[in-house]
Hints:
By secondary structure, the protein is an alpha+beta fold. The chain has a single domain, classed as Gcn5-related N-acetyltransferase (GNAT) (Aminopeptidase). It is 29% helix and 25% strand. It has seven helices and seven strands. The N and C termini lie far apart (43 Å). The chain has helices at 13-19, 25-28, 37-42, 45-56, 91-96, 123-137, 165-170; strands at 3-7, 63-68, 71-80, 106-114, 142-145, 174-180, 183-189. β6 (174-180) and β7 (183-189) form a beta hairpin.
Amino acid sequence: MSVEILPATSDRHDDTVHAIAHGDGPSCQCQWWMVRPSDFAALTQQDKERMLRADLSATVAPGLISYRDGEAAGWVRVGPRPAQTRIARTRAIVAHSREPLDDSSVWAVTCFAIRREHRGEGLMRDLLDAAVAHARAHGARVIEGYPLDPKVKRRGANDLYHGTVSVFEGAGFEVIARPRPDAAIVALTVRDTTG
């Protein structure tokens, strides 16, 4: 099986849509973290589709697509935390993050989508490793994630778009807070600015 992970760019729009085609992906278009809660509720499907197209046209790709034998099989959103508006409005993150909310050198991994037929193949781990490299290459100092812990509380596949604690820990992230027993805030320093 050949594996390739590439930036989600405007020329890969159809592959992005294919990668997020299961779970809540089609209705969300990976916009949940990008707008305020009240604004998200007011968006039409066409609004979200238009927003995703705009995201994919950005200078720096807003995410990555994993390909298995040439088929788009998974997606991860990763980008500067201030651009992901909902983060600053999520009380648990605001209360526990160690980083200033307006610091653009802090990036966040906020969404995974894995096609059903590719679940259980290690795609989330592969995508997270690639997301860390992507963030580091584009100036990230710290990368945060907000995964769930299905070992504490069983979750449906749709809820795991946050990622899982074990995958983040396996990639070297440190749990910095547990706002709930089944949810964590994790962080990984990828660039030291003290020296």
